[in-house]
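Aim 2, interim progress. The first record below pairs a target sequence with its structure tokens.
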Amino acid sequence: MKADEWRLLITIYLPIALVLLWGEDPKRADLLNHTMALVQATTLVCRFSSTPERALACRTFIKEWLDNLYSCYPHTRLHAKKTIVHIAFHIYEFLLLFGPVLSWWCFPVERLIGVLQKFNSNSHVGGEHEATVVKTWMRSANLRRWLNRKDCPELLRQFHRLYSMYVASADPRKEDPDPKPVRSTERAHFDHKGLHFFPGVHASGK
């Protein structure tokens, strides 16, 4: 799973499933509250805006999750300590320094990596594939530079015009010039401790 799929899992699907499964089970109340602390921390981090109060609340939820980890899951005492837990506490500082995670997370980079992985490398390893990608990018950059120059040859301009027309006609996304977004009135949602969680606005008071 990619990072964004994990985000959807922890902020939407997993909370809904756990509330339905454990919400009325007193024996699992501690497990539910423990998981929801991590859910709320993740939800706060993924908001489109950030404030010092939200950053502090995020760190508080992470600490609550960590403090109750051994009591909820005693077997984790036998596991080696993970540096990722320590790093999670530094998210508080990053939120104060850089603002919302949306502006500095790695999803765009992961998407680019996914695009590069689809390139046919003909089983070439050891830098040949990377060199080909760089050379192709440099050639396209040089071509764009030529097209933007005032002394660009007319033949090159005409070729660019014809090529652009061909690409536009071959692009299936151009079939509908005014696509209508599909809207649905149904939303996945769940309630926990007086808060109503649903996509778009992750938490709101009743």
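The second target in this work package is listed in the same format:
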Amino acid sequence: WRDRVRTCLLLNKVDRLIVELELTPMEAYERLLKIVEQVNAVNQMLLSEAAMAKDADGAEAAAEAAPGADEGIDLAGAELEFDVAAEEAYTYSPERGNVAFGSASHGWAFSLGTFARLIASKMGAKPENLQRVLWGDWTFNKKTKRVQRRNPVDAKSKPMFVEFVLQQVFAVYEATYKSLNPAVLGKMQAQIAGWKEVDLERLAAGQSAVRELMSRWLP
């Protein structure tokens, strides 16, 4: 933070949301959304403290130059100088590409750009446009084939991150972790290039199968 190094936020151990907490894709999305918001809140606090400290230093210098001046920050009269560039740089937003999700123990990770490139051709969309709507309150209308703002009251509508990202990840775990589902894995193998050379018949249910398939799909 002090060196102003631009960073990327990696949300690790996503696998635990699936195999340990047994959350639904929607519940997992809400958990991840909350974490990103909490991290951004901490960064905003640090930026505010930096702005206050900078203004306080200026007030102290002015007091030394003019003895008798009041100490502290005049919130009514002074304009705090916030570093807008730093605020943008340290705001984590998956659609901007500075947030990644993954599981170090199972050897996989992805950003929104990863899935945008994977599904763009199927949806007839540009990857860069798709990346902008794969996070937040956006849903895909199957009738109109268009993206629209999601109505939170509508329980049937799903955020695109849930429908096009998490449900796909959850499907792999559900078909491999506790027991193998050859039918589901066979359908997915036909669509995932990294699985073409995998012999599904030799896989045994459990972490080893998850690690092999997920690391080939989302290395």
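The chain has one domain: 9-217. This observation will shape the mutagenesis plan for the next reporting period.
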